[in-house]
Amino acid sequence: MKVRTLYLKKNTVKILDQRLLPSRIYYINCKNLKDVYKCIKDMAVRGAPAIGVSAGYGMYLASLEKKFKNLKDLKDYLKKSGEYLVSARPTAVNLSWAVNRIMKSVRKFSSSQVLKLMEQIKKEADRIYNEDISINKGIGANGAKLLKRGSTVLTHCNAGALATAGWGTALGVIRSAHKQKKIKLVYVDETRPYLQGARLTSWELLQEKIPRVLITDNMAGYFMSTGVIDAVIVGADRIASNGDTANKIGTYSLAVLCKHNRIPFYVAAPLSTLDMKIATGKKIRIENRSSDEVTFINKKRISPIGVSAVHPAFDVTPNELITAIITEKGIIRPPYIKNLKKIA
Ligand code: MRU
C-alpha cells in the first residue's frame, strides 16, 4: 500500500491519523513523547504492531526532549517515558514489548556518551519498524498456504498495513493469498463501534483491488450458515502462553460461530504479540473505552440522552476455538501450551 502508517522524518514522527480515513489522508507531526502517547491513546494510530512501532519512535523522541546532565539522567528519563507510553493502552502487548526492547538496548549501553545512546535508540526503533514489515510478509507467506484457490474469507477489525508498519497480519495473509490468485472474496466485518473494518480494511482492500464486500457484524453468522465462508482470519492484541487470544471485541463470537459451522478460525500474529508470562487469557486486561464511542456515530448521537453504553474494546477467544495461529516462524497448531513454547 502506498500510504504509510507512520514514519520518522527529521526527528518528527509522522503518524497517519486513522480516525480521518477514508475521507482524508493527514499526518500528525509528533515532536515529543506526549504527542506519540496521545496518538496511541486517542487511536490516531491503532493496531497492536503499529502501536509498538510508534512506541519505539516515541522513546527516541523522549531521548531528544531535554539537555541531559549525564547518562544516568537520560536512562532514568527513558525509564519513566516507557512507563508513561505503556499506560496509553493496556491490551496490546506489542506496546510494552517495543518499550522493553528499547530499554534492553539502553541498559546494555556502556559508553558514557549521551549522544551515542540517542543514536542507538533511533537505530533500534528503525529496526523494530523494518522488522515488522518483513515479519508480516513471513506471516503472509505461511498463512497463504492454508488457503485453497477460490477461497472466500471473513476478517474482523483491521489487521492490515494500517495496523502495522506495513503489509499486515491477518490482512497480510489475505494480501499474500491474493497474489497467489487464491482469494475469491473477502467479507469485511464493519467492526462496531470504531468501524475499523468499514473505514480501514475495506479501504485497504479497495486500494489493492482485492474483491471485498462489507457486512455488519451481526451478519457474519448468517453468511457462515449459508456455506459461503471458507475461513475466518483475524489478528491479535495479546496471546497467552496457552493460546487464548485477545483481539477486537466481536472476535470471540466469530470463533464460536466458526466452531458451530465447522469453519477454520485462524489467528495471524507476530511472535511479539505472544505474552508467555501469562498462563491464560483470564490474565489479559481488557481496555474499557468511552461510552460515547457507542452512543455516537460520526459525532451524531444515535441513542436517547440518558442512555449510556459499555464499551470493552477487546474480548478473549479461548484456545480450543482456534484452529491455528499463523506466525512468522510457521503455523502453530494445538496443543498451544506445548507448541507455542517451542517457538517463543
Ligand atoms: O482498537 P484497535 O483498533 O487498536 O484494535 C486492533 C485489533 O484488535 C487488531 O485486530 C489487532 O491489533 C491486530 S493488528 C495487526
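^ MRU complex. Residues 46-49, 92, 157, 159, 163-164, 169, 196, 235-237, 247-248, 313 surround MRU (CB under 6 Å). The CA atoms of residues 156 and 189 lie 5 Å apart.
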